[in-house]
Amino acid sequence: MIRALDEALNAHLAWGRQVLRSALTHTVPGADVLDPAAHEVCQLGLWLRSHAGMLQGINAHKAKALEAAHHRMHDAIRAIMEQAQTGQAVSAAQVDAFEQAQDELMRLLTALKGRLVTEAIRHDPLTGLPLRHGLEHDFSDFQKACRRNQAFFYLAMIDADHFKAVNDRLGHQVGDQALRHLARTLRKNMRGNEPIYRFGGEEFVVLLQTHSAEDAQHAAQRLLEAVRTALMPLSQQEPLALSVTIGLTQVQDEDDLSSALQRADQAMYAGKQAGRNRFMLLDAPAQPPLAQRAG
């Protein structure tokens, strides 16, 4: 997406050079200048149209401003070129209108590219999930939201069982497919208030806002069953069955991300020791984990 935006920006710069050449040599510019719908047929316009949904999702207000600036820029240059082609003088106000629209367009596009680069850095290219880079900030916001809503805040650490054996037996390419399959399965079974992150390797972290401890345990059980029943098809082989172990802990007001992750990790490790394919609950450092087998 970023590469396509760069190509569209380069095409826009080339378009600007062609407009200048047409003005200086008194040649007739193409449809991407004189057509009333030029803002839709130029390469930058095609990129904006094809990514309209994504732009709306990032920032609907700025997406609308970007489209408007692009449209105004084309309207301004078309008016300038039409007058120049007929030998009429072009006013300073017309040039100002073009330059202002052009400046706003480039400012918005530069900000958009920065946002896309930031999002790309924060997201895992393999699974599409957010990475742990923004987790600390999200954790703090989630903690405040749970406090406002008087809800329980649980953090779950999820680890794929025997994943090294998958890579060793079937190869890393199938291992990557299995991670994508696992991420899709987990995300599909997340509710709207349950963000999920790829924490590293075959580990994932989920933030849960629940009405009770029982709700948190039901959510963990739901994930266990979803992974266990979602077989991954393999060509000319039996489908691959995966399972996960989940460490679950309630986040207290005094907790920071590090302390919550440490407890969740301890609970997950206890689940691995107890046989995997289960969740373990550790609500406070002094409490022993409570085991719950899948199914």
Low-confidence stretches: none
Helix count from the secondary structure assignment: 12
**Overall geometric form:** elongated
Largest sheet: 6 strands, mixed
Q: How many strand elements?
A: 8
Strand order of the largest sheet: 2-3-1-6-7-8
Rounded mean pLDDT score: 89
Separation, N- and C-terminal Cα atoms: 42 Å
Compute the CA-based radius of gyration: 27 Å
Task: Report the structural category.
Answer: alpha+beta
- Which percent range fits the helix content? 55-70%
Q: What fraction strand? A: 5-15%
Taken in chain order, the helices and strands follow as HHHHHHHHEHHEEHEEEHEE
Secondary structure layout:
Elements: H1 2-25, H2 31-34, H3 38-41, H4 43-50, H5 52-58, H6 60-85, H7 92-122, H8 135-149, E1 152-160, H9 163-170, H10 172-188, E2 196-200, E3 203-210, H11 213-229, E4 232-234, E5 237-240, E6 244-250, H12 257-273, E7 278-281, E8 290-293
Parallel strand pairs: 6-7
Antiparallel strand pairs: 1-3, 1-6, 2-3, 4-5, 7-8
Helix pairs in contact: 1-4, 5-6, 6-7, 9-10
Question: Could you walk me through the main structural features you see in this protein, from its secondary elements to its overall organization?
Answer:
It is a single chain. This protein has 295 residues and is of the alpha+beta class. It has twelve helices and eight strands. The strands form two sheets. A six-stranded mixed beta sheet has the order 2-3-1-6-7-8. Strands 4-5 form a two-stranded antiparallel ribbon.
